């Protein structure tokens, strides 16, 4: 997947540098405007906002199929994010070693959302052996729906479901990187923008974890994702 920068008034590397810097570090758009000006790039914070909203999610989507294989024992949980003054849900899954498997922003926390998230995660990570969740009824129903679907496809062994909250400490700790980065943002103004920015933050977190090309500098890995 190659991301088009056609029509942009700045070079691709300038745009990617600004987007990566915003996603990776705790800076505001106005702070980033000053940083870019120090490097001889004159633009305003509204332009930076548009770049991040437009490109972060596209680059993250391109990266989903390029990460290294993960373990078949998963941990899944959701955390809360404020969008337009309301709480929405960021579904997240990691393997037992802490590697990010997938993520999805949802306006609802119910069986349909959980099922959609599990199906999405299976699409790019393959069949898992076991999943640890909390005691959420929606997540339990979602996994049961996935197992029913797998059985209809001829899969003889269902996904083992473990509902023990203390075993999910690893993903609750992993939420902290995401929460720490979005805290200064004081919420998002639109669901689409929130989904794009959060996907970008998840991506740079995965780069930090060494899930793509270890040994290559993080920004160079980010450039690779953009094609």
Automatic annotation (TrEMBL):
Residues covered by the Integrase catalytic domain: 65-226
Pfam family, one: DDE_Tnp_IS240
InterPro entries xref list: DDE_dom (IPR032874), Integrase_cat-core (IPR001584), IS_Transposase (IPR052183), Ribosome-inact_prot_sf (IPR036041), RNaseH-like_sf (IPR012337), RNaseH_sf (IPR036397), Transpos_IS6 (IPR047930)
Biological process terms in GO annotation: DNA integration; DNA recombination; negative regulation of translation; transposition
Protein keywords: DNA recombination, DNA-binding, Transposition
Molecular functions per Gene Ontology: DNA binding; rRNA N-glycosylase activity
PROSITE patterns (alphabetical): INTEGRASE
Function: Involved in the transposition of the insertion sequence.
Protein name: Putative transposase
